[in-house]
């Protein structure tokens, strides 16, 4: 099958990881993958390195008329059978391209849990019945898409996944380079410094946690973004300078997770199915997460491997951390459950082929 993946920003976040995984798996199985994007970044460079045929399009307002035509021409020339669009804008562009070349089937994955305004609800009602299939990556994402006017009959929930780890044993070797002591209770969060990631809520919860326990702990924040310096200043003002470690963007997050005792997610909105949480579960880390998007699906549905707390409940979040910090038996139980849940429910090698069946 010839599949084209369409995304606006070809950066390094979870959606890009989703596309990267599908391209890698389907290419290895003998299918022909193509890539179209607007803003270059780490993913577009990776596609180039892999030799994936690529097309750069103007997906902004200035390209509203030209992009569908160029996409249609490219699909016609290369015999593309499926356009897999990421996000609403890309989906509209893909569907508009069918006016010029009706051969491809359009499959759309929405990676957000964001409620739309009236204009997008109207656009969704008009356009999404023309999608071949629409993928929601979590149950809340499905429900919100329906509220946003997306055609319910086209929607199927297919979770994100990761390749199950062969070794989930703890390895503290990454701690020294981070400034984390061997006996410190180590928590990790992988997040951009963006408002929707709830990092101020994280600081408030950790400040309260310090008043609840004498046990030394460290929280390692891996990520970059515009809010980095503001976070650093607030961290200092709360007296958390020696507690919260800003590690920046890292490529060794697998090692950092294996050195950790607990994984946190403090998102306030827009979190669908977090790859970072999946990677933490794959490292057999128990979770303390906010009740946003697919977080509850990951931490509690079917198999419990963590605690879910409402965003903004600082005391609830701090006490959930404290419970797992103090109860070694419960933490070990949830740790084992996290790895088992990946094997049974979130195995990428199975879920990728659920996506492929949506193409057919």
From TrEMBL:
Write down the SUPFAM superfamilies for this protein, in alphabetical order: UDP-Glycosyltransferase/glycogen phosphorylase
Highest rank taxon of the organism: Bacteria
The terms under GO molecular function for this entry are: glycosyltransferase activity
Q: Which residues form the Glycosyltransferase subfamily 4-like N-terminal domain?
A: 14-165
Question: Under which name does UniProt file this protein?
Answer: Glycosyltransferase
Q: Where is the Glycosyl transferase family domain?
A: 179-338
Pfam family membership, one: Glyco_transf_4
């Amino acid at each position: 099958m010839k599949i084209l993946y369409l995304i606006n920003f070809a950066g390094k976040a979870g959606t890009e990881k989703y596309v990267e995984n599908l391209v890698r798996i389907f290419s290895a199985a003998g299918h022909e993958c193509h890539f179209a994007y607007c803003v270059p970044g780490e993913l577009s460079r990776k596609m180039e390195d892999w030799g994936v045929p690529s097309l750069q399009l103007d997906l902004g307002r200035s390209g509203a008329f030209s992009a569908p035509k160029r996409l249609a021409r490219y699909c016609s020339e290369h015999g593309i059978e499926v356009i897999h669009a990421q996000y609403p804008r890309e989906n509209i562009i893909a569907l508009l391209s069918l006016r010029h070349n009706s051969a491809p089937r359009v499959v759309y994955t929405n990676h957000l849990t964001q409620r739309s305004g009236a204009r997008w609800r109207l656009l969704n009602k008009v356009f999404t019945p023309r999608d071949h299939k629409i993928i929601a990556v979590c149950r809340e994402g499905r429900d919100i898409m329906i509220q946003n006017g997306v055609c319910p009959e086209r929607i199927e929930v297919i979770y994100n996944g990761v390749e199950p780890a062969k070794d989930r044993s703890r390895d503290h070797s990454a701690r020294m380079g981070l400034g984390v002591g061997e006996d410190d209770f180590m928590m990790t969060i992988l997040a951009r410094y963006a408002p929707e990631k709830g990092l101020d809520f994280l600081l408030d919860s950790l400040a309260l946690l310090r008043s609840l326990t004498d046990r030394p702990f460290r929280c390692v924040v891996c990520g970059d973004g515009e809010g980095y310096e503001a976070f650093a200043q607030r961290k200092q003002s709360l007296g958390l300078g020696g507690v919260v470690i800003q590690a920046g963007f890292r490529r060794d997050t697998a090692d950092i997770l294996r050195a950790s005792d607990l994984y946190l997610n403090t998102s306030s909105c827009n979190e669908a199915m977090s790859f970072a949480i999946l990677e933490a579960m794959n490292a057999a880390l128990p979770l303390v997460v906010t009740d946003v998007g697919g977080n509850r699906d990951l931490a509690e549905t079917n198999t419990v491997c963590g605690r879910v707390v409402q965003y903004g409940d600082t005391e609830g979040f701090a006490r959930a951390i404290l419970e797992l910090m103090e109860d070694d038996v419960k933490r070990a139980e949830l740790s084992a459950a996290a790895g088992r849940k990946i094997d049974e429910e979130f195995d990428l090698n199975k879920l990728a082929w659920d996506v492929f069946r949506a193409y057919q």
